[in-house]
Amino acid sequence: MNLLFERIQSGSHKYLKGLLDLYVDSFPPKERRNTCDLTRMLNNREMYFSGILVNEVVVGFVVFWKFNGFLYIEHLAIYPCHRKKGIGSVVLKQLQMEGNPILLEVEIPFDEASNHRVSFYQGSGFNSLPVYYNQPPYRKGESLVPMFLFSDKSDWDSEILQSSIDFFQDRVYLQNNKN
Question: Which residue has the higher pLDDT, 3 or 140?
């Protein structure tokens, strides 16, 4: 599979509108930014909003953050017509080739779709970390969202893990949501 990431850093990028539609369709409001906020953040040097291309066809997107010592995957979505073809697993493998452990949030399963997401990440070598975890709200006045925190690394030192969580929550949620 010839899979490439195309980083989007402009509100006028040719793939952005379609990928923002997928973003809104794939995540409930409490688990995503509003699209205007996301578009304003496209030039953030740590955030990579990337279209996923397979054989030059846009099949989805991934939003990940590169930090010192780890990657944080904020969102991953594949267009419905391209799902169940192994694309998501290839995306994760490609990100793992960066050489740093990966952290990501997964909703606590409550239905068939959310159970499928947990199984997908487990099948890709990720496991829930033994921490009580809440995703900070994307907007002021909203509530914390209970989630699982997954990683492809199982042997995190507890202090390093907590400092990594504090760091990415500050950079991803708090600093970028002062509105």
Answer: 3
